[in-house]
Amino acid sequence: MAKPHWNGVFPAISTQMQRDGTIDLAATARHAEVLIDSGVNGIVFLGSLGENQPMSGAEKRLVIEAMVKAVNGRVSVLSGVAETSTAEAIRYVRDVEKLGVDGVMLLPGMLYKGAPEETTTFFRTVAKGSGLPIMVYNNPISYANDMTPEMFARIADEKRFIAIKESSGDPRRITELRNVVGDRYAIFTGVDDLVLESGILGIDGWVAGTGIAFPRENQRLWDLMCAGKWDEARALYRWFQPLLKLDTHVRFVQYIKLAVQECGLGKEWVRPPRLVLKGEERKQVLKIIRDGIASRPQLPRRKQSAN
User: Fold this and answer.
1) pTM for this structure?
2) What domains does the chain contain, in order, with CATH numbers?
């Protein structure tokens, strides 16, 4: 397997829904088009923000089939994998491999806090189930299992593991990972309001959340960081920070989908058991979003690169 070079912005796109919770494939494809135009290098479909877990297996496969066709090879297409058993994770990864994805973003087995050996065994077993490259998603805050740097060192011999989405909430992990595993993996941050701090420490990419509502600003921040233009990056980050914090709340799906709607890129409808925001919470989140839109910085036009 040739090792792909994953870097840059890989937004975790939301799955657009109708008011009744059914999937709107056309709207999801339109949103993906806006993200591609902004300059991203890949898109993660059916991550946590993509409402993977409330979908049936058939629905997930339908989304991936449609989005692979819509993207048509212009950027990398990854699918989130969030299954409760090893067997189901393998079955899903094999199916999306046949549907043409470029890789997967793999969570540990859902609903079970495994011992370190169980967690690494899960990842190894799923990796052997297909030929796809894998981004290992570490999010101990939300999903209980913590993939430590030492655990990543233990699975480093498996060539299908090429990237880490680091979402422990502790930017010290970036340096700890580099010290333990060096450049063995591409390291992506998955915590929006730690991206600048993580960028200074040296990361390869960003699985962005709130940026799906503000794709031009999101990409501009990344470009400034890559260019080492830290004063400009800090100024843009200070504007962006209240919006980026929408990605760190338990109702981040509703918050970010509301931002997507306010920016004219989709609708806020979600799949139950989630419900759209109401009352005072909705007012507070709308104020953050609308204040951000009102103070949106003027950005230079980005040069389009050939994909």
Assistant:
1) 0.96
2) 8-233 (3.20.20.70)
